[in-house]
Each structure stands twice: as structure tokens, then as C-alpha cells.
Amino acid sequence: MPTDCLFRHDAYMKACEARVVAITAQGGVVLDRTVFYANSGGQPGDTGALVLADDVRVPVENAIFTDPAKSEIAHVLAAGAPPPKAGDIVRAEIDWDKRYGRMRMHTALHLLSAALPYAVTGGSVGDTDGRLDFDIPDAGLDKDAVTARLGEMIATDAAVTSRWISDAELEANPGLIKTMSVKPPMGTGQVRLIEIAGLDLQPCGGTHVRRLSEIGAVKVTAIEKKGKLNRRVRIAFA
């Protein structure tokens, strides 16, 4: 049964009531709906808790997709935590501070991919820092110059919005895809686009802030050589 992924429509939801539909063989809890982002696209799965009817809080250490189509999410409980039963009604609550940091950083990394218009070969989203790997033939990148460009973009306070297109529309517009290592979330018939007004447009299933001013100041902390053509650019909140 597909999980209703509420975070795709409102990344600011911190909690929701849900029904347990299954417990996986590994002990993961599958809900009919969730606010927990599942580990994918370089962004880690959310942590938090499932609150049971008797107010017992069961810690959640991760959220993962259980199928290749990325339609069902299992909530991975802390070791030894008592799982709820199928049919139980629970309250799913995420660790908001950690999620919000990742939302800010993920949006900042989209700006980085716009500031450096090269193919992206990898990436990672943290709650205080992040990185992108680029296919760049010339290593002539300047940390201060890239930091300044990111600052200029953030200062525009552009709106960040999402919309959906069909798989066929994305296939007809391959230029939208920047990532060489991560396949856009396809397979359900539609693909989610994240648009930063006037600055960037690309497929992404991750969580983002609504406006660039929410990111705050960021800086490039390192530019590393990871092969003949690969450059790793790390950023962090200033």
C-alpha cells in the first residue's frame, strides 16, 4: 500500500496522525501517511518518534523506502523499542530542528548547482553543512567568489515552489536533470520539480524552505579534488 507522503506537499508539517498498516520483516513500521522524509537523493531520513495511544513515545531513528518505486515508507525504530501493532493509530512527530536545517541546506545546495552550472556527480545534505560533487574539467574555483555568489542569490529572497510534471514531460526535457549519480524520483507517472524563482529549476523529491531568506548566510568551506574531473564543493551555515 503506497504511503501518503505528506512532506512532499507541505515540508513544514511537524506531526500527523496515522494508522499502522504493516510491520516489515525487519521491524520497520509502515503507516498509511507520514511527515517523515525517507532517506533518498542525498538527504537523510528524518528522526523523531511515534506516539502511541497511551502516550508512550517510540523513537524513530530513520525512515526508508521499502520498494524501488519509492512508494512505501518504513519507520525504523530504535533498537529494543516496542513496535505498535497493525491497525493502531499513532502520532508521527519529526525532530523539527534537524529537518528544518536540512531544508535550508538542501535549498542552498540547489543554489550551489545554479552558481556552478556543471553536471552534478554526487551530493549529501546535512542539517548544518552539505556538499556537491561536480564534473569540472578545470579546477579553477575560488571559495570566496562562490560564497559571494551564493550570498547574492540568497539576498534576492526568491520564492521556492514545487509543481508536478509527467514522466514523459521530463523525458522530453532532459536538460532539467543536473544529477548524474541520482536518478530523479520517477515511476509513479509524475515527477516533482523544485523552482527557485529566476534562479533554478530541477527535479527533486526533497524538502525545501519557502523563501531563500530562510537559508541565512552560507559559506564555501572547502573545494576538494576527487579525481581528474571531479571537484567536491562543501558549504556550511556561516
Explained architecture:
This protein has 238 residues and is α+β, with helices and mostly antiparallel strands. It folds into two domains: 91 residues, Elongation Factor Tu (Ef-tu), domain 3, CATH 2.40.30; 140 residues, Threonyl-tRNA Synthetase, Chain A, domain 2 (2-Layer Sandwich). It is built from three helices and 15 strands. A six-stranded antiparallel beta barrel has the order 2-3-7-6-5-8. Strands 9-10-15-14 form a four-stranded antiparallel β-sheet, with helices on one face. A hairpin with a 5-residue loop joins strand 2 and strand 3. Helix 1 crosses helix 2. The chain starts with a strand and ends with a strand. 34% of the residues are buried.
Task: Please give a quick description of this structure.
With 238 residues, the protein is an alpha+beta fold. It has three helices and 15 strands.
